[in-house]
User: Fold this.
Amino acid sequence: MKDFQKEFGEKMIASVSRSFYLSLRFLPSEMRGTASLAYLLARATDTVADTNALPEDDRLEFLEAMELAINGGEEVPPLDSSFLEGEISVGERNLLEKWQHCLEWLQSLQEPRQLAIRKVMRSIIKGQSDDLRNFSGKEFAALRTEEELDQYTYDVAGSVGVFWTDIGFDAFGSDFAGLEYEEMILLGENYGKGLQLLNIIRDFPEDIVSGRCYFPGSFSDPDGEMIWNEIKDHWQKRCSSLLRSAADYIESLNGSRVRFATSLPALIGARTLKLIENADWDNLCGKIKVSRGEVKRIMLKAGLAGRKRLSKMISTQFS
Assistant:
């Protein structure tokens, strides 16, 4: 199983992830395997949820079957070969074809880690399923309330911050962080929600073209630029406020490797948000992305920074 985890886990994550793979590479071994497996499970369910090669009802049914399998129920039926040969990437196809290996890996973990993965996957699959139901029609649709958006960001990413905290305390006990468990849980939750809100802001033009808007409002006309000008200031400030939690979370972490791995999404996120704030509508439609060269520079600065300086690097970005 250890050889499989190294071969399958590391190579598979590298094939389906760009930024999160960086964090997992530097995470201490006490957390890396569990976090890697959770990521692969979430990426597999996300691939099913996002595909247009399957009808919505089939995707919902398959997500339910995947959740049952993760919780120790029946095996997931194989996906139709036409789906596996369709729009998904080679890495995603390999992951779905070897789904059963992920479940075997899950069964090999100690019970607290199994429970942590099952808890976070329940939240993630709920969020993915709610997303399908909220935007199931062919007509343009927006979420109704800020509470709906807050719940969605918690389900698919805030829960990941909770999960990260759970396995950190399981691995290192009270040495994981200088703050108490409850404080770290809240900071981790907000950190995750901020990252997901950033994804929603960045992907806004693409989502509008697909007929969906995560930002609540009574929009009579799905004019992306008009809606964007109306909502951008509020939601960019909200995103910045949530991501500010990352500075306190990271400053409290005791291990340098955990601190470095945990800081990368915040630092890359801060740069992404800054690019969005400075972009006009046409640039936003072109998909904002931090270049590989800039990511390397961010990693170098983070690697050289001590605890206080690393926290300040993050907090000043969101002041």
Q: What stands out?
A: DSSP finds 17 helices and two strands in the chain. The chain has two domains: 1-126, 140-319.
